Amino acid sequence: MNKKNFDSDFCGSLPLHQINMIQSYGYLLVLEREDLKIIQASENANEILGLAVQQLVRTSFRDYITKEEADNLYFKFQTDIIEKVPLPLTIKTEGYTGRFVAIAHVKNGYLILEIEKAGEENSFLNVFQELKYVMAEINRSESASQASSVVVHQLKKLSGFDRILMYKFDEDWNGTVIAEVKEDDMDAYLGLKFPASDVPRQARNLYLKNPYRLIPSRDYTPVKLYPVINPVSQAFIDLSDCNLRAVAGVHLEYMKNMKISASMSIRVIRNDKLWGLISCHHRSPKYLSYEVCSVFELLSSVISNKIASIENKEFFQYTSALQEKKSRLIGNTYSYLNLSEGLLNQDINVADLFNAKGAVLTFKGTTSRIGDVPDEEDLKNLIYWLQSKGDEEVYSSRNLPGEYEQAASYQEKASGILSIPIDAEKGEYLIAFRPEVITTVTWGGNPEEAIRFEADRQKYHPRNSFSAWQEIVSQTSLPWTEQELEVAESLRSFIFEFTTKHLKN
Predict the structure, then answer these.
(1) CA distance from start to end of the chain
(2) Residue 128: CB partners within 8 Å, gap ≥ 6?
(3) Helix 482-502 crosses helix 290-336 at what angle (to 10 degrees)?
(4) What confidence category does residue 164 fall into, taking pLDDT thresholds of 50, 70 and 90?
(5) What DSSP letter does each residue of 36-69 carry, written as one string?
(6) CA atoms of 251 and 47, how far apart (whole Å)
(7) Around Cβ 263, how many Cβ atoms within 10 Å?
């Protein structure tokens, strides 16, 4: 169970927000907030504004758009708006007129404008009509997996991407493909697990700011900003929440190894936390207009709300069942005024509460057992180990042998442990045990080779292979859920109160 964690050790520390370049499918301008003067611009801005970037800087953006649009832009950002706002623009220069969409970001002392060519209105309306049917299908789904299957199939129809998959994160931020639709001649990833370093920590954080990430072509030429240093902040400009932000070289290499030229990732959020990603792949370059991307952004909210609704309902139902069992245990304990009788020896017991195969109570020099638990000598040593940890709160592990080596001798019955201290100094504990569950995990490539370092141990490359790689996981139990740990903590509080008031002697 001791795996390399490139997600936090290396990949997760790379400063993606400080990539001071943009992708070439759009244009970026930085304006002074008060007078709309251009103080920084992407070097390709000459394509639409007709002047080299060195000449553009210090000119007013008002000179390139209509007075109505300029006034609209100015007045919108004299307020404290913090959300990104799309605005239509008509750029007119000598011999050139073009329709654009500008995504405006309000910063401290300046505005960022991301500018893309406007899409066709008819195309947008057609896609939006299709979206209504997708939303209806999603809302009829009864499980997260069913909703995921609906969304990947419908998105493929809407977008034409070669492959679309739903990627769900686990507690360690590894991602499992739970739904997929693809062209017949492409590799299948359904059911495969991918290591957390594939979407490292700082990249996941950026999805909390940006609903989607579009890379129309991995072979694009990055566009620099001029001047390099932002005149207001006197530093590289923070492009964290910009769609146009350039792509880290290692990710472009990752795309090449996956044999795709274009990609789009759409976030799925549950309770303000990243739940998963919808990942779209295409084998040739593929650009989607901002209007179409906005439809996908709306779909991200729909699928997020549906999955949150389904999983929150399941969460509360399970929580309610646990609370009902706990209440019965407490009632039995008060009825007998005896911890062992109330918690272990009635029609419902602690093992039932925690979905365990065995439980032990050590209290006032007596050890009581139910179910399948370690033998007496092993229990004694385990309690010594728990005491040495000095924990006064609930302790849990699904891989006890990985933390306490002696537990390997009884891993079949106690790979999982949930320990509730009653009086740790006296060696008094209530402990539930879960048996070993041997599982086969199929990874998309060897997770131990998620990245390949060069000789300097600084530069690195993603793995070349995403072929199925199987791992046999042993010495682990089913995981302890968030609800179970909360109930365990509340049961600890009850036991403390009960023993203080009723068992003083």
Answers:
(1) 44
(2) 295
(3) 30
(4) very high
(5) -BEEEEEGGGHHHHSS-HHHHTTSBGGGGS-HHH
(6) 28
(7) 23
Reported residue count of the chain is 505
Q: Which of 179, 181, 177, 188 is nearest to 156 (CA)?
A: 181
The amino acid that residue 159 corresponds to is S
Tell me the one-letter amino acid at 126: N
**CA 141/CA 144 separation, integer angstroms:** 8
Q: Where are the beta strands (DSSP E) in 326-373?
A: 358-363, 366-371
Contact assessment for residue 271 and residue 311, using Cβ atoms and an 8 Å cutoff: no
Which residue, 363, 362, 344, 364, is CA-closest to 354? 344
In tens, the pLDDT along 330-363 reads: 999 999 999 999 999 999 999 999 999 999 999 9
227 cis-preceded (ω within 30 degrees of 0): yes
Rounded Cα–Cα distance for residues 350 and 329 (Å): 8
Whole-angstrom Cα distance, residue 355 to residue 481?
10
Other CB atoms within a 10 A radius of the CB of residue 310 amount to 18
Rounded CA separation 332/346 (Å): 8
Higher pLDDT, 348 or 80: 348
Residues 6+ apart with CB under 8 A from 301: 211
Q: What SS3 string covers 127-152? A: HHHHHHHHHHHHHHCCCHHHHHHHHH
Token output for 501: 């008031």
Identify the CA nearest to 194 among candidates 467, 453, 479, 475. Answer: 467
The pLDDT, as a whole number, for residue 11 is 47
Give the number of other Cβ atoms within 10 Å of residue 168's Cβ: 19
Instruction: Residue 181: name the closest of 143, 152, 201, 157 by CA.
Output: 152
What Rg value do the Cα atoms of the chain yield, rounded?
A: 29
pTM: 0.84
